[in-house]
UniProtKB/TrEMBL annotation:
Pfam assignment, any one: YceI
Lineage: Bacteria, Pseudomonadati, Bacteroidota, Flavobacteriia, Flavobacteriales
Protein name: YceI-like domain-containing protein
Domain Lipid/polyisoprenoid-binding YceI-like: 60-194
InterPro entries tied to this protein: Lipid/polyisoprenoid-bd_YceI (IPR007372), TTHA0802/YceI-like_sf (IPR036761)
Length: 199
């Protein structure tokens, strides 16, 4: 009498092995990159009745999830935050007015959280892609849905996001700051310029 049950454990192990082997590429294909706080730059530029101005964000954080297994990368997650009171212009009076306008005592961070990718396409240089990401931008406690355009460059363990986004302060319920008893007025239109490094 032959015993046919003997090879069964071997068959089970072989099945587990192949299932694991086939699933590994999917597990490895999506990677999370953390924003480097010490590299890159996030700058806000604007105008006033006296002169143009700029502020640089000294504290920023975030993470991006990327799946680079296909022809075009897939952005699975993207979150980006700047500490409101880390915006510095080099002029303490202007900084104070900025923090007041941002209501930074209550709202410590400016946050962008992606909800979907509107479009992604290859750019002219290698490993670079043009992206428009839809997400929620929260400034001074006011959230708007925005389309954020940027170039995404994937280089091994390093990812670069760079672009610029123009907006009106009043669209976030922010009254453009004034100085010197209201004689110097800031323009409503500002631009956020960013070159960020993620690892």
């Amino acid at each position: 009498m032959h015993n046919h049950t003997q090879p069964r454990p071997m068959f089970i192990w072989r099945t587990i092995f192949w299932m694991t082997f086939l699933l590994i590429p999917f597990a490895l294909s999506s990677q999370t990159y953390k924003l480097s706080g010490s590299e890159g730059e996030v700058m806000v530029t604007g105008t006033s009745t006296l002169h143009d101005w700029e502020e640089i964000a000294e504290k920023k954080s975030g993470s991006i999830g990327l799946d680079v297994s296909g022809e075009l990368p897939k952005i699975t997650t993207l979150k980006f935050a700047v500490e409101s009171e880390s915006l510095k212009s080099g002029k303490s009076g202007m900084d104070k007015n900025t923090y007041k306008a941002l209501d930074s005592d209550k709202h410590k961070e400016i946050v962008y959280q992606m909800t979907s990718v509107k479009s992604i396409s290859k750019a002219s240089s290698a490993n670079t892609y043009k992206v428009i990401a839809t997400g929620n931008l929260t400034i001074a406690g006011h959230t708007n849905k925005v389309d954020l355009p940027f170039n995404l460059t994937v280089n091994g363990s390093k990812v670069t996001l760079d672009g610029k986004y123009g907006m009106k302060m009043t669209s976030f319920g922010i009254e453009p700051p004034k100085a010197l008893m209201g004689t110097i007025k800031t323009g409503d239109e500002i631009e956020i310029h960013y070159t960020t490094i993620w690892k």
